Amino acid sequence: MVNTHKTNEVFYDIIFKDINLDPERAIVVDDNPNFLDSAEKLGANVVQACLTGEYKTTYRYFVEHINNLPEVIEKLVKKIKK
């Protein structure tokens, strides 16, 4: 969900439950560390999109150009399948 304020982990918890998805199998992509922290608290895999330079890279998985996103997602999918 783009341009939606994700105030805390309840936002993600409701989504994961609504679609019956184990958070540990979820991949959340966002630029805002506060939103990523909320998803990560539930066990989701997070990718920080540092496309605008507004936020400093602080996560293990990040992209600085959208073209790199598929590669990062592929790594995460392999990790999740283990």
The number of distinct β-strands equals 3
Strand content is 5-15%
Main sheet record: 3 strands, parallel
Distance between the termini: 27 Å
- With strands numbered from the N-terminus, the spatial order across the biggest sheet is 1-2-3
Mean pLDDT: 92
- Net shape: globular
Helix content: 25-40%
**How many structural domains does the protein architecture include?**
1
- Low-confidence parts lasting 5 or more residues at pLDDT below 50? none
Number of helices: 3
What is the H/E order? HEHEEH
What structural category arises from helix and sheet content?
alpha/beta
Rg over C-alpha atoms, rounded to the nearest angstrom: 12 Å
Describe this structure as you would to a colleague.
The protein has 82 residues and is of the alpha/beta class. The chain is 39% helix and 13% strand. It is built from three helices and three strands, in the order H-E-H-E-E-H. Strands 1-2-3 form a three-stranded parallel beta sheet, with helices on both faces. The longest helix has 13 residues. The chain is globular and about 30 Å long. It starts with 8 loop residues before the first helix and ends with a helix. The mean pLDDT is 92.
Write the layout of secondary structure elements.
Blueprint: H1 9-18, E1 27-30, H2 33-41, E2 45-49, E3 62-63, H3 69-81
Parallel strand pairs: 1-2, 2-3
Helix pairs in contact: 1-2
Q: What is this structure, in a nutshell?
A:
The chain is of the alpha/beta class and about 80 residues long.
List keywords for this structure.
single chain; 82 residues; alpha/beta; three-stranded parallel beta sheet; 3 helices; 3 strands; 39% helix
